[in-house]
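Hi team,

As requested, here is the filled-out complex form for the tetrahydrodeoxyuridine run. I kept the field names the same as last time so the parser does not choke. Let me know if anything looks off before we queue the next batch.

— J.
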Amino acid sequence: MENKQLQKALQTLPENLAGYLKPIVESDSFSATISALQFEKLMSQANLSDKQLRLALLPLAASYSISPISNFCVGAIVRGLSGRLYFGANIEFANSPLGQSVHAEQSAISHAWMKGEAGIQDITINYSPCGHCRQFMNELNTAQTLMVQLPEREAKSLQAYLPESFGPNDLNIDTLLMDDKPLAHHINSDDRLLNKAVEALNISHAPYSGNYGGVAIKLDDNVIYTGAYAENAAFNPSLPALQVAIIQMQMAGKNVAQISAVALVELKTGQISHQASTQSVLDALDLDIAVKYLSI
Ligand code: THU
Ligand code: ZN
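And here is what came back:
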């Protein structure tokens, strides 16, 4: 297994649970997700309740954290509408503004979104979700039913954590994060990376600025990861497409040092642009990569 932190986290789990998890986590096809069937099996094998098992898995999710600034590892696990569970962890960028950081909750949610989930049932986190994450989650199409589980707490709804909330409704927006989008943009190019970025653009959520956008990242092993832009009614908690793509590669056990090319495609009609900020995050990573940019 490539991820040493994951290996370490596995060793901290109760012995019987670690034993049952090992073949799943060490399999080549493991991608920081657990199927509903695997989860049910684990519950009965380790004799844990649904809540107990999700809480027990948190150290595995947190092991994906990249936190060079805080050394504070946050892990989150979301359950998609399909029943599959997705890990997420916080990601910090040394040499970039703190606003470029990804919170564990955003990571797990965008992980599930990019892997095709159409909504989130519940989220389990090892620390209380900050105000920014509560706001980020209020953009979801399942914001009215989403349950939040913390260690040593009863599960509570997102709405209980975010009373008198501000949200898409206040701006008369009714297309929500993770809703199926009718976007079908395409480009006349045989550049694979740009085409992948357009695919991501087509699922992006940008009803406020109109800056629908997607990023595709190619690694040194030629595998491509994509990220769609996820905008928020309160603007600042929006998650850039580059970060979403980095989450996908991080959850696949890859390293940002492996990035060999990056493409960003966004709409000409958008009122903002991520071209400069995408380039500056990459520059701060010292990757010496010029973003391939297209506005369509
Ligand atoms: N963090 C989260 O990932 N989620 C929260 O809601 C609380 C804060 C992360 C962000 C940053 O990487 C570190 O914890 C310190 O704030
Ligand atoms: Zn947060």
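Two things worth flagging: The pocket of tetrahydrodeoxyuridine (ligand 1) is lined by residues 67, 70, 72, 74, 90, 92, 101, 103-105, 127, 129-130, 133 (CB under 6 Å). Strands lie at 33-34, 75-80, 85-89, 120-125, 147-149, 156-157, 213-219, 224-228, 259-266, 292-295.

Thanks,
J.
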